[in-house]
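Our consortium's second objective concerns turning raw sequence data into structural hypotheses that experimental partners can test. To show how far this objective has progressed, the report includes one record in full. It was chosen at random from the queue rather than selected for favorable results. The single chain below, 321 residues long, was entered without modification.
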Amino acid sequence: MQHVSRRHVLGLVGAAGAGVAVASTQPAGASAGDTALHDHGRRRQRGRRTGIKGVSALGVPLIGMSAPAEVWHARHRAVGPGVGARRIFADLADGPTSQLSLVREAHAAGQLPVISYKAGGDVDAVVAGQYDAAAAAAAARLAAFDRPTAVVFWHEPHGDMTPAQYVAASMRILPFFKRDRLEVGPLLNGWLLDRQAEVFAQYAPDELLRTWDWFGFDTYESGTMESPGAVKPASRIPAAAAFLAQRGFQLPLGVGEYNGYSAQSITDVGNALLSTPNVWFGCLWNTTGGKGVELSGDRLEAFRGTLAKARARRARRRRRR
């Protein structure tokens, strides 16, 4: 297994990040319009604290959403106010600026970006160090926003690689992102907690649990829309909390993607997010594809209800402080 030293990380930041104003609050090449957007985001951010400490102090997780970029704004309008996090998919094979514009949009809206990086589908290249420079430069650009950002390496790795490959690649890439206001964590395959907890654990050895700043997973309902299964997505939230407790770690939880086939399933996930201690964020996957189904009708109203509960609870707790 190859590990990257802090000296190596800093050296690559200096080399790959030449021309990146790391100490600045703007990424390199930012336009006047970007600067205005960034300043607007700082003003909006005052109304919602998105970092782990701020969310933990208030005790109300960020309820977020994921949707393809081309339909994000329409689906954001459909669900209404209160979206506190935005799930973003990037690829280091596309260079260090991959999806940076979406990160910028999220910050401007006062939302936590939850950005996950893959690497051209080639985990062995990651372990060999071929993505070191891209990771260092991407981290510098993310850090330049000077806003809390959740960073993931290779979400839902099971099926794409072995646990050993995942651990080796994570230990190679994550040190580049362990800086400034960036918080690193996984988004593992939540369904493994149902009957393959021992496999799930192989993707979360102690060395990674000590490296991660938070611990996350994706969770979907079993079965299909026409024939829902017995396992509901909300069940994995307490299961993940129990997994961490059994391992002796107290990391904030994050849900990168969730969806459900009924309004009740979506409501139950929202209630689990709001009632489970130490949850940082939970993002609903609002599009049709794979296990997800775009929100509509009572399922849309259920998610709006979760957003409303989070807003109301946040307002009450602020008044008490």
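The partners drew two points from this record. The chain has 14 helices and nine strands. The longest strand covers residues 85-91. Both points have been shared with the crystallography group to help prioritize constructs.
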